[in-house]
Amino acid sequence: MPATSRPRTLVRCCAALALTAAATAGCGSGADGAKGATLKLVTGVKSDPFYITMACAAQEEAKKRGVKLTVDGSAQWDVAVQRPIIDSVGASRPDGLLVSPVDAQALTPSLAQVQNAGTKVVLVDTAVSDASIGVSRISSDNEAGGRTAAKALAELMGDKGSAIVISVKPGVSTTDARIKGFTEEMEAAHPAITLLPVLYDNDLPATAASQVQATLAAHPDLGGVFAGNTNTAQGVATGLQAAGRQGTVKVAAFDAEPDEITALKNGTLDVLVAQDPAGIGAQGVDQALAAIDGKPVTARIGTTMVAITKANLDDPAVSKYVYRSAC
Ligand code: T6T
Question: Taking 80 as the threshold, does the pLDDT of residue 20 lie above it?
């Protein structure tokens, strides 16, 4: 078995520990065999508070575990931007790679190459459809999050009028699941609400702003919007304010970054489905280190989500899920 496929850090730690074996009990047992491992994190979008919060917690966990973690990410939500980053990170042969692939198909060949070279791959937040990729997958239950948003929005709309979903791009595992959960819940439990065709904004707030204004012009009875993530929610809020319809058109949005919280406070957004990017990041490090150390790994981990409204925002048990814009 080539050296790379054996938990390299285990080898190094044993060598290091061997020196001190005289003083301490046996190697690896109890000792953190993954100490000194090299880990890399490639996020979806570097400047996105969701991924900043994830990276901060992953860094803190890595420090606690005595391992080096370097973070990189795309400037925008784009396969053509993220693929070369994954390829170059992969070429550096880290012991572990935590990655949020921005598409469920297009990045599989690159990730397979990294994994086949012996790097332990952990999929954090988004995933690829190929189940052979990754030793662990850690994310919110996005379909359930979509259902929660539908229930909340239907109630806010008084169970009538038209509603629309605006999201990032087709082919993104997380946001596609949110749309699925939202649509199924609306169709099953709120048939009186007319669901307009889904629009995609390429993760650009300005596009979401013009899309919501165009929809208002075409559908004056628009009563609700489901925004699939942070940038979309920002754009929807801007569009409703520009149209003077903030507060009359109800909005359920995913995520809880600072601009969304401001819009929640001023009544432009009504309910946020906040995820736990910090938990995803920290558990990503732990799962990667367990795999590197040849210890049991959890294949799938579902993380916490909370619904935030103006009414419960000041509750510390809720506000702790507001995303950071810096570590
Ligand atoms: O909603 C999160 C993340 O879960 C999703 O995969 C992409 O968008 C965000 O990063 C928010 O911008």
Answer: no
Of the pLDDT bands very low, low, confident and very high (cuts 50, 70, 90), residue 33 is: low
User: What is the mean predicted confidence (pLDDT) over 4-18?
Assistant: 44
Residue 111's nearest CA partner among 38, 33, 40 is: 40
3-state secondary structure of 169: coil
- Closest C-alpha among 179, 183, 209, 181 to residue 194: 183
Average pLDDT taken over every residue of the chain = 92
Tell me which residue of 91, 81, 103, 95 sits closest to 40, measured CA to CA.
95
Neighbours of 269 (CB within 10 A): 29
Residue 24 pLDDT = 43
Ligand 1 contact via 260 beta carbon (within 6 Å): no
**Ligand 1 mutation pick, 51, 124, 125, max ligand atoms within 8 A of CB:** 125
- From the CB of 229, is ligand 1 less than 6 Å away? yes
- In sequence order, the β-bridge partners of residue 306 are 274
Interacting residues of 70 by C-beta distance below 8 A, sequence separation 6+: 39, 40, 41
Query: For residue 26, how far is the Cα from the chain centroid?
Result: 39
Phi, psi of 308 (to 5 degrees): -110, 130
Compute the C-alpha angle 15/21/27, nearest 5°.
Answer: 65
State in Å: Cα 15 to ligand 1 middle. 41
- Measured from the Cα of 203, ligand 1's closest atom is 12
Report CA(14)–ligand 1 centroid distance (Å): 39
Is ligand 1 within 6 A of the CB of residue 286?
A: no
Can you tell me the distance from the alpha carbon of 134 to that of 127, in angstroms, rounded to the nearest whole number? 9
DSSP class of 249: B
Tens digits of residue pLDDT in 52-70 = 999 999 999 999 999 999 9
Instruction: State pLDDT tens for residues 112-163.
Output: 999 999 999 999 999 999 999 999 999 999 999 999 999 999 999 999 999 9
